[in-house]
Amino acid sequence: MEAVEYQAKVEALAEDILTDKQLAIDYDRKRQENREALRSLREQSQKSKPNSVLATTTVNMGDFFIQLPLPKAQKMMEEAQAELDKAIDDVRQRLKAKVKLLGELEGDEKLVSVAKAMDLKSVSGQDLYGISR
Q1: CA 23, CA 3: separation in Å to the nearest integer?
Q2: How many CB atoms lie within 10 A of CB 94?
Q3: Against a cut of 0.85, is the pTM above it?
Q4: Who wins on pLDDT, 119 or 45?
Q5: Alpha-carbon dihedral 67, 73, 79, 81, rounded to 10 degrees
Q6: b vs e for 19-40, b when ≥16 Cβ sit within 10 Å of the residue's Cβ?
């Protein structure tokens, strides 16, 4: 009975990993769409008169369209972009932990070493500046 429970645990974890990978892909696709929309809004605001109150754009909000001032639409898109960035980072962190756990469960040293390598943190600009001084 232990082998069946072990296999079920491994299968469930592998399924969670695949689900998180797909979620990260979906979030990234949405982030790319938002980036395109932001670029379009910036171009539209450059073409309109600076600080014009009359400059508006139509935004799709779920099942309906709303006409908003350009600055407000840009702000909303930038906030959505920041939320997506945070969500993608959260999913990637969960993925790292799950891959590491899967490697440990399966006893796969290669997978564990890859998971440990994924735990590395990138050097920030401030850290890099401190190194070069």
Answers
A1: 30
A2: 15
A3: no
A4: 45
A5: 90
A6: ebeebbeebeeebeebeebbee
